[in-house]
Amino acid sequence: MPRLIVYAILISGLLALLPPAIIARVRATPDPNPPVHIFHDMDFQTKYLPQSENAQYADGRAQRPPVLGAVARGETYADTHYYDGVSGGQWASAMPTQVPLTMELLQRGEARFNIYCTPCHGYDGAGNGIVNQRAIALVSNAAGPVNGTVWVQAKSVHDETVIVQPIGQIFNTITHGVRNMAGYGSQIPVEDRWAIAAYVRVLQRSQNATPDQVPADRRAGL
Amino acid sequence: MSRFLFPRWTNALLPLLLVAGATLPLYVVFVVAYGFSPKTLDVGYMPSQPVPYSHALHAGILGMDCRYCHNTVESAAFAAVPPTQTCMNCHTQIHRDSPKLVPVRQSYETGLSIPWAKVHKLPDYSYFDHSAHVNRGVGCVECHGRVDQMEVVWKDQPLSMGWCLDCHRDPTDRLRPVSQITNLAWDQKTQMTREERESLVKLYHINPSENCSTCHR
Question: Which of A36, A141, B105, B111 is buried deepest, with most CB atoms within 10 A?
Fold first, then answer.
């Protein structure tokens, strides 16, 4: 058999291994290039989806922010108890009528607290969440605070000054923040903020309870 | 006139040709099926992002819940990527001079959005709803993989129609209690028995639709 033919067979055999090798590599490694669209079909339509871009506007946002001062129908925020935690010019000391205190509400509050508050305040509310610990480690770095980090210890919700606060004030802390804590009003809907405020009360009660506050039939389990 | 005769060595090629003829179709099928599958073309897309933001740090080491940032995921079709304000809840203080956070601080001052690159994108003719899945016990990990271990997010699943339907035909093994949806390390196959998962199907009244109009509306 002529050499040429032998080489041709060997080379085409080797070349045939190339596509599977490329496929295996592509499958195994992440790739910064967008997926190939050979047929565009109707994949990219001239419509705007949430958080998409529109070059027509100076800020590039397709989703237009409401005009300053716009009020949605039915949302006049006139109910200061519900929206601000203020009733009769003072911090409200009861839950608003829109969110009655139920077991479901407290469970909702627990779940929401664990999402939004535990990074700093910890699961028990004592102020020792993981982010709080990291931040304190960054501040007390031997060679000076890392990247100019500053941090104020997240306050324990069991602090005397917080325990005496009416629930409306706690609601306000969640909504607008306090001193070094940012507000969560834009991240958490109103009902959930009330649920969290109610759960803060649960934590305060349960973490500072005395044995005689435990119902008699449950004391055996302590 | 001399007749053309195949040289004797061509006889050796005959079995080779037969083998090639038999394997070539298989080979082509293999290359097309694997090479053009969404698992090859789509999975692994990892665009570079304007900020070296790490899920492995925030969601993994710091243990933050996905919903702290993607807070619309339970109530809307769209799982919003967080606004700059959310980062600044912490980064007005933590690493506040970090060079890695320059675009975040700029965005905070100018009010312009950070141009995050979108990783997961269905074609515009298909409809997807996060709240329908997340509130029915389908965890983030089923569709996005171990995001809490990714430095940069990549596309972990093909998100093709066949892939959606695989689950819609029988979601039982891929369901978890709603309380565990953002717990990516939790595995329903080891933590729950098949019976328990079947009881979830009843509890959440799960009956995913295979009608075309469910996803093409």
Answer: B105
* Residues B150 and B52 sit within 8 Å (Cβ to Cβ): no
Question: How far apart (Å, rounded) are the C-alpha atoms in residues A102 and B115?
Answer: 42
Q: What is the CATH number of the domain that holds A101?
A: 1.10.760.10
- Do the beta carbons of residue A138 and residue B93 sit within 8 Å? no
Name chain A contacts of B114, Cβ cutoff 8 Å.
none
Task: Say if residue B156 is in the same domain as residue B207.
Answer: yes
Mean of pLDDT over chain B: 89
Q: Would you say residue B49 lies in a domain?
A: no
Q: Residue B1 — very low, low, confident or very high, per pLDDT cuts 50/70/90?
A: low
Contact B77, B130 (CB under 8 A): yes
Domain that includes residue A139, residue range: 80-208
List, in order, residues 6 or more apart from B44 with CB less than 8 Å away.
A26, A27, A29, A30, A31, B154, B155
pTM equals: 0.89
- The total domain count for chain B is 2
Which residue in B12, B68, B123 is closest to A42 by CB distance?
Answer: B123
| Rounded-to-integer distance, Cα A171 and Cα A178, Å | 11
Residues B182/B152, Cβ–Cβ less than 8 Å:
no
| B103-121 pLDDT tens trace | 999 898 888 888 898 899 8
Q: What is the pLDDT of residue A94?
A: 84
Of chain B, the percentage scoring pLDDT greater than 70 comes to 100
How far apart CA B111 and CA B23 sit, in angstroms, is 61
A45 contacts chain B (CB < 8 A): yes
Count A/B contacts: CB-CB distance under 8 Å: 125
Output the CA–CA distances (angstroms, integers) from residue A119 to A132, A181, B62, B65, in the order listed: 7, 12, 7, 9
Confirm whether B90 is domain-assigned. Answer: no
Q: Say yes or no: A128 contacts chain B, CB-CB below 8 A.
A: no
Residues of chain A falling short of pLDDT 50: none
Taking each continuous run of H as one helix and of E as one strand, the counts in chain B are 12, 0
A136 touches chain B (CB under 8 A): no
- Cα–Cα distances (Å) from A96 to A82, A84, A106, A178, B177, in that order, read 6, 10, 15, 22, 31
In a domain, B100, yes or no: no
Alpha carbon dihedral B20, B23, B26, B28, in 10-degree steps, equals -30
